[in-house]
Amino acid sequence: MASTTATEAATLNSFNTRARQALRDERLRDAVARSTDLLGSRRVEALSELANADELRDAAAAIRSASVSRLRSLLDEWSDNFTALGGTVHWARDAAEATGAIAEIVAASPAGPGAVVAKGKSMASEEIHLNEVLASAGADVIETDLGEFIIQLAGEAPSHIIAPALHKDRFQIADLFTADSGQAVSAEIHEEAAYARDRLRRAFLDAGVGITGVNFAVASTGSICLVENEGNGRMCSSLPSVHVAIMGMERIVADLAELDVMLNLLARSATGQALTVYTNLITGPRRDGEADGPENLHVVVLDGGRSAALHSQYSSALSCIRCGACLNVCPVYRQVGGHVYESVYSGPIGAVLTPILRPDDPSARELPEASSLCGACTEACPVQIPLHDLLLKLRLERAPESATATRRWGFRLWSLAWSLPLVRHISRVLTRLGLRCTRVLRRLPSRGWPGAWNKCRDLPRAR
Amino acid sequence: MQALRAAGCEPKDVGGAFCCGQPAYNSGFAKEARRVAKPTLRAVSKASSGDCVVASGSCAAMMSHYWPELFAGTPQAAEARRVAERTKELTVYVSSRLESEPVNDAPQAESAAEVHPPLAEEPVVIHDACHALRGLGAAEATRRALAASGRRYVNPPGSERCCGFGGLFSVKMPDVSVAMADEKLDLLASTGCETVVSCDLSCLVHLEGRAGRRGLALRFEHAASLLEGIGPGAGK
Question: Which of A149, A382, B44, B48 is the most exposed, having the fewest neighbouring CB atoms within 10 Å of its CB?
Answer without folding.
Answer: B48
